[in-house]
Design brief:
Length: about 475
C-alpha cells in the first residue's frame, strides 16, 4: 500500500503599498475606477530617456511591513531589472529586487489564541517592485476584437511577501492569508482591498509522501483573486496531482490558471525559473541602505497592538469568545468600530455589541457591499441602541426595526423608537392588563401551566406580546403570568 500524500504549499503575495504616488514617478497610485491611461507619465510608460526616482514613503512602508512580520531588514538592498515581454510591461522589464531584497527570515503564527498549539509559517523574503499595467480584452464585438492596455497601474508600488513552503493544507493557506492581510492593514502598510487589486496571490504547490523531506514537482497557480479561490484551487490541485501520481504519471512543472467558473486549473505556460528573467542590477537606481534613522522611523509607526495582541485583549478585557474576538479583530477598521461602541455603551455590554455587529451590521454591509467605514450607523448610535435594549426600553425584536430605520435615516435610536411608538412598555399596570386579557383568552394554556407544563408560559407570553404589538416587556410579562396563575 502506497504512503499517504501531503500538500506542500508556498504563497507569493503582492500587496500594494498605501502611498499617494507611484514607486518611481509622481503619478497617482490610486486610480482604481478612473478612465484608462489617465494616471500616466513618461516614467511609468517607459519612454526613452525617462529615469526613475524612488518614492521615499514606499520604502518606509516596505520597512514597516517587514518589521511587522518579524523580518530581518537587510542593511543594503538592490533593485534589479526582471526582463520579460508582455504587452502591459512597457519597458520590457520590471524593476524589482532579486538577490538582495529589503528583508528576509520572518514569519507569522497560525492558530494563535485557539486550543491547538500555534504553528509558525516562515516568510523567506520581502521585496519591493513596481506593478505592471492591465490588459483589457474586448472580444465578441463587431467593431472591436482585440486587447487594449491600461497603464494606470504601471509603476504602482508593491511589496512581494514570499512564504516558505511550510503550509500543508488549503485551510492553512486561507488562515495565513487572513492573518497576513490583517497584519498589513493594522500596520498601515496596505489597504489590501482585493476588489481593487491591492492584494493578489500566486500559489506554489506540490505533492509528496507524508513524512518525506524531498519536494515534489512544483506547480504555480495564478489568477487567484480571493482567499476563497486560493483554498478551492489548492484543494483541486491536490486531487489532480495525487491522481497523476497514483496512475504512475509525472506532474509537469508549469504555471496554471485557476478557472473559478468551472472549479479547475488549466495550463498557462511552462514554469519560468530565475535565469529565464535574466536579472541584472538596475543601473539607474543606487543601492538602498537601511539607515538607523529610516529603520527607527518605521519601527515608531508600528501600532501598539497587532491583531494577535488585540484578539487577546478582546478575550480578556471584554470576555468575548475566541470566535467573536477573531472575527472582530480580523480587520483593523472593524476592531476600531467595536471598541468605539464599547467605549460608548460600557464593557459589560461588549458581548451584546459584538452580537449586533456580527448580525445586523455585517448583514447590511455585506448586502450593500460597503466597508465598515461607510456604515450609516455610527458606533455611538449602535451603542445607544444596545443600551436601550439592556435597559428594557426597546425589545430585541423591535430593535431590529429601529436599526433598519437608523440605517436609512441616520437618526438616533432613542428618537426613532419614540417617534415610531416602539419603546418597550415596562409599566406593571399596563402589562398586567395585557396579561389578564391573555389569560382569559387562553384557558387551555393556563391549565397546562397549572399542570406543570412550563412551555405553556411561553405561549402566554407570546399572546401578551401580540396584544401589546410587541411593546410589552417580555420578562415582566413572564413574571406577572406566573404570579397570576399561582
Amino acid at each position: 500500500m502506497s504512503a499517504p500524500l501531503e500538500l506542500v504549499i508556498g504563497l507569493e503575495v503582492h500587496a500594494e503599498l498605501a502611498t499617494a504616488s507611484k514607486l518611481f514617478c509622481p503619478c497617482s497610485a490610486s486610480s482604481f475606477g478612473e478612465p484608462p491611461n489617465s494616471a500616466i507619465c513618461p516614467v511609468c510608460t517607459g519612454q526613452p530617456g525617462a529615469l526613475p526616482v524612488l518614492n521615499a514613503r514606499a520604502v518606509e512602508l516596505a520597512f514597516l511591513g517587514a518589521l511587522a512580520l518579524g523580518c530581518r531588514l537587510r542593511e543594503r538592498s538592490i533593485f534589479a531589472r526582471k526582463n520579460y515581454f508582455y504587452p502591459d510591461l512597457p519597458k520590457g522589464y520590471q524593476i524589482s529586487q532579486y538577490e538582495d531584497p529589503v528583508a528576509e527570515r520572518g514569519g507569522l503564527e497560525l492558530g494563535a489564541g485557539t486550543a491547538g498549539a500555534p504553528r509558525r509559517i516562515g516568510i523567506r523574503r520581502v521585496h519591493m517592485e513596481e506593478d505592471a499595467g492591465k490588459l483589457l480584452h474586448e472580444e465578441g464585438s463587431r467593431e472591436l476584437d482585440c486587447s487594449l492596455v491600461d497603464f494606470n497601474r504601471s509603476g504602482v508600488p508593491l511589496v512581494e511577501i514570499v512564504s516558505e513552503a511550510d503550509i500543508r493544507s488549503p485551510e492553512e493557506a486561507y488562515e495565513y492569508l487572513v492573518r497576513l492581510k490583517s497584519i498589513l492593514q493594522y500596520a498601515g502598510v496596505s489597504h489590501c482591498d482585493m476588489e481593487k487589486g491591492e492584494m493578489r496571490c500566486d500559489a506554489n504547490v506540490s505533492v509528496r509522501a507524508t513524512g518525506s523531506q524531498a519536494l515534489g514537482t512544483r506547480v504555480e497557480i495564478k489568477n487567484l483573486n480571493s482567499f476563497k479561490a486560493v483554498r478551492e484551487a489548492l484543494a483541486y490541485e491536490f486531487v489532480r496531482q495525487s491522481g497523476l501520481l497514483a496512475e504512475g504519471r509525472a506532474v509537469v512543472q508549469e504555471t496554471r490558471l485557476w478557472k473559478a467558473e468551472r472549479g479547475v486549473t488549466e495550463p498557462m505556460r511552462s514554469k519560468e525559473e530565475a535565469h529565464d528573467y535574466r536579472y541584472f542590477p538596475e543601473p539607474d537606481l543606487v543601492a538602498l541602505a537601511a539607515s538607523p534613522s529610516l529603520v527607527e522611523k518605521a519601527r515608531s509607526e508600528l501600532p501598539k497592538m497587532m491583531p494577535q495582541e488585540r484578539r487577546l485583549h478582546f478575550l480578556t478585557q471584554y470576555g468575548l469568545s475566541e470566535y467573536d474576538a477573531g472575527v472582530l479583530t480580523a480587520e483593523k477598521a472593524t476592531a476600531d468600530y467595536f471598541e468605539d461602541v464599547v467605549d460608548a455603551c460600557g464593557a459589560p455590554l461588549a458581548k451584546q455589541a459584538a452580537n449586533w455587529m456580527q448580525s445586523e451590521l455585517f448583514a447590511r454591509l455585506n448586502a450593500e457591499k460597503r466597508a465598515i467605514g461607510e456604515a450609516p450607523v455610527s458606533p455611538a448610535a449602535l451603542a445607544e441602541l444596545v443600551g436601550l435594549i439592556a435597559k428594557g426600553a426597546v425589545s430585541g425584536r423591535l430593535a431590529k426595526e429601529v436599526f433598519a430605520r437608523m440605517w436609512e435615516t441616520r437618526e438616533t435610536p432613542g428618537v426613532l423608537a419614540e417617534s415610531l411608538g416602539l419603546l418597550q412598555v415596562s409599566d406593571s399596570r399596563a402589562v398586567a392588563q395585557w396579561v389578564e386579557e391573555a389569560l382569559a383568552e387562553n384557558p387551555k394554556a393556563v391549565a397546562d401551566v397549572k399542570a406543570g407544563k412550563e412551555r405553556a408560559v411561553g405561549a402566554l407570553v407570546g399572546a401578551v406580546m401580540r396584544k401589546s404589538k410587541g411593546k410589552a416587556n417580555p420578562d415582566l410579562a413572564n413574571r406577572l403570568i406566573k404570579e397570576k396563575i399561582r
